[in-house]
Amino acid sequence: MELSGSRRRVAYFFNETLPLFHFGPGHAMKPYRHFLVDDLVQGYGLDDKMSLMRYEPASKEEMIVYHDSYYIDFISQPMENLKSEKANVKNEVYLDTDCPNFTGLFNYCQLIAGGSLAAARSLNNGFCDVAINWGGGLHHAKWNRAYGFCYVNDPVLAIVELLKHNGRVLYLDIDCHHGDGVEAAFYSTNRVMTLSFHLYEKNFFPGTGNMNDIGVGAGLHHSSNVPLKMGITDDDYEQIFKPIVSNVLQKYQPNVIVMQCGTDSLAGDRLGRLNLTLKGHSNCVKYVISKNIPLILLGGGGYRPANAARCWTLETAIALEEELPISIPEIESYEYFAPEFRLEISPGESIEKCEFSGDSTIRTTGIMDFCSLALSTSRITAIQFSSSLSFFLIVKVDLPNIYAVLVNILHYICPLKMKCCRKKQIIIPNL
C-alpha cells in the first residue's frame, strides 16, 4: 500500500514522564535522552508541523498479547517486593544486571509499550502516514524475560497490532545490535519479514544475527540478517543498505514498515562500534520514507544522549520534509549539546584509528563479514540479487574482474531443535 496525497501526515508520540525514570548509577541507558529530543524538536519548531500525540500507558492485558503473564505479573509488583532477581513462579530469572529493578519499573514498561501501540493504531485507523515514537524500539526483550536493557518488546506489540489490519509487515532494524527479540517472535510466520543490519563480531552483544538465521516453517526466508564489521562508514553502509532494502520491498511488498532507528550505530557511541554520521544514519531513514509506504519510526539503542537527540530530531525533520539550521537553537537543554552546539556528528579520524570507549581500535573498513571473506581493502561497487527473498549476494569489488560469492542461504535450516528453542513465535495465520 502506497500513500496518496501531496503532504505527508506525521504524528509524533510522546509522554512527558518517560524521561523521568532512572536505571541506576552508571547504567548506559539514560531515559532523559527523550527530554533532549523532545526539547530539540520543539526548539526547531517542528512541533507546529505535525500532530503531537500524548500516549497513555499500556495495560497488562495489552502486554500479555505477546509477553508471558507470569513475567508481566512479576515486574508489576512494587519495587520493594522484588527483593530477588529470581521469581518464585517457575524459577525463571526475569531481571539481571543489564535490566535492573528500579523505581517505577512497571510504569516505565507500560509507557514503552503504550507509545508503540498508539503509533500502530494511528496507522491502522488512517490518522497519519508516518508515526514517530522515539521512546520505543526496545528490540531485545524476550517473551518471558528482560534482556539487553529492554523489558517489554514494543516493536513486537506494535507489529501484532498492525497485523489486525495489514497482511504483511516489514520490520527493518538499523541499531548497532541485532534485533533478536523481534526476529524470535516472528521466526515462523510469513506475515512479518525481519531485516536487521547490525555489528556481528566475536563477544559483541547479543551474539546473534548470523546469515544462517532465516526463519523456519512458513517463515522460512522471512528473517534476514546483514552482519557488519566494526567501523563501517556512511558510504559503505549506504551501498549495502539501499540495494538490499530495495530488493526486499520489491519482492515482499509490505503493507506497512516498522523501522527501528537505534543511534548506537553512530560514531563515538558508548556501546556501539560503527562509524556513521548523522548523514549516514538519516539517509537510511530518508530512503525508506521515500518509498511512501505507511511507516512507524521507533528509537532504540543510543548511549550518547545528545547524539541520539540530534539524530532523531533530524529524522523527524526528514519525515516532515523540513531543512534544519546546523546550529542548535537556544533551548532548555542547550548545554547538553556542548561543546559544538551543532546538529552534526563527525566520524572517527580514520577507520583504522577511530577509538571508542571501552574498546581498542577499529580494525576494518566496514565491509560485510560474510563467510569471513577478506574484502577489507576493497570497496563495494555493485550488489546483485536472485529472485528469492533470501539473499544470494554477489559483490563486485574494485579489483578487476573479481566476483566474490559471499553467501547462499537458500538451503540452511534452523540450527536449533525446536523442542529446545526458547524463542516464542507469534501464532498468526500465514499468507
Question: If you had to describe this structure to a student in words, what would you say it looks like?
Answer:
The chain has 431 residues and is an alpha/beta fold. The chain has nine helices and eleven strands. An eight-stranded parallel β-sheet has the order 2-1-3-8-7-4-5-6, with helices on both faces. Strands 9-10-11 form a three-stranded antiparallel β-sheet, with helices on one face.
Topology:
Elements: E1 10-14, H1 33-43, E2 51-54, H2 60-63, H3 69-75, H4 105-124, E3 130-133, H5 154-162, E4 169-173, H6 180-185, E5 192-199, E6 223-228, H7 234-252, E7 256-260, H8 278-289, E8 295-298, H9 305-319, E9 380-384, E10 392-397, E11 403-408
Parallel strand pairs: 1-2, 1-3, 3-8, 4-5, 4-7, 5-6, 7-8
Antiparallel strand pairs: 9-10, 10-11
Helix pairs in contact: 1-9, 4-5, 7-8, 8-9
Task: Explain briefly what this protein structure is.
The chain is α/β, with parallel strands linked by helices.
- Fourth CATH level, the homologous superfamily: Histone deacetylase domain
* Morphology: globular
Which sequence of strands runs across the widest sheet? 2-1-3-8-7-4-5-6
Radius of gyration, taken over Cα atoms and rounded to an integer in Å:
21 Å
Listing every helix as H and every strand as E from the N terminus to the C terminus, the arrangement reads EHEHHHEHEHEEHEHEHEEE
Query: What count of helical segments does DSSP give?
Result: 9
CATH topology: Arginase, Chain A
Approximate strand percentage? 5-15%
**CATH architecture type:** 3-Layer(aba) Sandwich
Number of strands: 11
What are the segments in which pLDDT stays under 50 over at least 5 consecutive residues?
A: 87-91, 349-422
- Taken together, the total number of domains comes to 1
What percentage of residues falls in helices of 4 or more residues? 10-25%
Taking all residues together, what is the mean pLDDT?
A: 83
Main β-sheet: number of strands, strand sense, barrel status? 8 strands, parallel
Distance between the termini: 16 Å
**What is the top-level CATH class?**
Alpha Beta
Protein structure class? alpha/beta
